[in-house]
Amino acid sequence: MESIRLFSAKGYLNTSINDVMEASGTSKGGLYNHFRNKGELFSAVLEESRRRWREINLAGLDGIDSPIGKIIRILENYRDRYLAGSSDVPGGCIFVRVSLESSDLADQWPEIAREISEGFDRFKVMIRRYLDHAKSTGEIKTGVDTAETADMVFSSMMGASVMYSMDKSGENLNGNITSIIRFVDSKRNRFRKEAS
């Protein structure tokens, strides 16, 4: 957990093995018994971070039938439980934090940069699937471009996370995520919603 906090706060390139040893209270030998190098340690951190991200951000989706409702719950969870509500990620979303280093990271650790990029792509596909399902059931307007909308939701979440990592303002974070929720909600087919 200490490694997640460090990489979230300092990024990959600015976190040293010595930082990890100091924060976790372990020796160099103890650390290298588990990981051959910093890249291997970070891969384990990413795996745990993905697990925690899913656990926190996808909580409660099973009880929601509406695909748009699921997207809104993800946004609420991201704001309330992942960014503002978690001491695990003091620097904001670890994936966003590390992606800001992407040009340097891609040169030094291309497999890590690729892994993060693929995770972002999978998340956008998940949002688009929800939007496609909403379109097929008439929950959103027929003219909605689901790929464009998914990109907008994803990009806006990235921006909200970057801003939160800089200013730590719960008020600004709430405003940013609320704006994304309103954007998603504006895609609803109001006639269908009122008729049901």
The computed structural class is: mainly alpha
Mean pLDDT: 88
Known CATH architecture: Orthogonal Bundle
Distance between the termini: 46 Å
The helix-strand sequence is: HHHHHHHHHHH
CATH homologous superfamily, by name? Tetracycline Repressor, domain 2
Main β sheet profile: none
Shape: elongated
**Helix tally?**
11
Helix content estimate: over 70%
Question: Over the alpha carbons, how many angstroms does the gyration radius reach?
Answer: 19 Å
Fold-level CATH name = Tetracycline Repressor, domain 2
Compact description:
The chain has 196 residues and is mostly helical.
Can you tag this structure with a few keywords?
single chain; 196 residues; mainly alpha; Tetracycline Repressor, domain 2
Please tell me about this protein's structure.
With 196 residues, this protein is an all-alpha fold. It has a single domain (55-195), classed as Tetracycline Repressor, domain 2. The chain is built from 11 helices and no strands. The protein has helices at residues 2-10, 17-24, 28-34, 38-57, 67-83, 94-99, 102-108, 110-136, 146-167, 170-185, 190-195. The termini are far apart. The mean pLDDT is 88.
Topology (SSEs and partners):
Blueprint: H1 2-10, H2 17-24, H3 28-34, H4 38-57, H5 67-83, H6 94-99, H7 102-108, H8 110-136, H9 146-167, H10 170-185, H11 190-195
Helix pairs in contact: 5-8, 5-10, 7-8, 8-9, 9-10
